[in-house]
Amino acid sequence: MTRAVVNGGPSVVRRRGAGNAVLGLAGLCGFLALVEALPRLGFVSPDHLPPSTDIAAALVDEMSDAAFWTALGDTLTGWALGLFIAITAGITTGMVTSIVPYLREATASTVEFLRPIPSVALIPLAVLLFGTGLRSTLLLVVYAAFWQVLVQVLYGVQDTDPVAEETARSYGLGTWARIRHVLWPTALPYVMTGVRLAAAVSLVLAITAELVIGTPGLGARITVAQTSHAVPDMYALVAVTGLVGVLINAGARAVERRSLAWHQSVRGEVTP
After folding, report:
1. Residue 196 CB: number of other CB atoms within 10 A?
2. Apex 186 CA angle, 116 and 189, nearest 5
3. DSSP bridge pairs for 269
4. Number of other residues whose CB lies within 10 A of the CB of residue 202
5. Is 21 buried (19+), middle (13-18) or exposed (0-12) by CB count in 10 A?
6. Phi, psi of 107, deg, nearest 5
7. pTM of the entire predicted model
């Protein structure tokens, strides 16, 4: 039996990835040039949109301030803790719900009722319960990210080959052995998709909590810059949140590729 490599193999994939990176960099440079030109040519007021060079100078000033790094650390702390709790709870709940007889059907309506509720709608509850501390951020982050992971776990376990599961039962594999050798390998690609989505959603909710509630972090620092009319600093901090989001997404994708190195979708190979 021979293997065929899809679309020319890994070398083609690497060249395509490099080409996409170049195009992405070109697009970013074009966007920065546009932001530089619009206020200088008088199309928009510099009070509303400063030139990109002014924003870059403000970013350098921010990075020289110890309070900036403290705020960044606060944001990442809320993001990481919330994401960890959500992943742990989502995987555990999803597995238990999937393997316990009739539990999936019994909880389906509850999941469908709670899942569409926007996390921002819980802001008054978070403030009422925890004030403006870290726990308010965690409540919003965990609630938003939990559903991303849970739903993917449920779909992943549901996609398990029934023949493989029945074979495992016929060989006398216990519940834990079936989870480890049958359910988990099937669900893992779904789980990693959920984790990647949850990582992005967690950052969005962490920043939102800081903006609205005032918990310490980049969001609160953006609010201070906005109220004090430090417009270049505000845009610089917004750019930092975007950069953090890009890095988080890249890191999540790297973890996904490493965890699924054995999977066909990552290897880019098929067996004809």
Report:
1. 19
2. 60
3. 5
4. 29
5. exposed
6. -105, -5
7. 0.84
- Alpha carbon distances (Å) from 144 to 21, 23, 200: 30, 32, 10
CA–CA distance, 174 with 187 (Å, rounded to integer): 18
List beta partners, residue 5: 269
- Residue 262: pLDDT above 80? no
Terminal alpha carbon distance of the chain:
8
Angle at which helices 66-99 and 52-63 cross, to 10°: 90
Highest mean pLDDT among 18-22, 137-141, 259-263: 137-141
The span from the CA of 172 to the CA of 178, in Å, is: 9
Distance CA 199, CA 148 (A): 9
Question: Which residues, 6+ apart, have CB-to-CB distance to 195 below 8 Å?
Answer: 87, 149, 252, 255, 256
Q: Return the exposure string of 242-255: e unless at least 16 CB atoms fall within 10 Å of the residue's CB, then b.
A: eebeeebeeebeee
Q: How many CA atoms lie within 13 A of 254 on its CB side?
A: 6
Q: Which residues in 70-90 are b (16+ Cβ under 10 Å) and which e? A: ebbebbbbbbbbbbebbbeeb
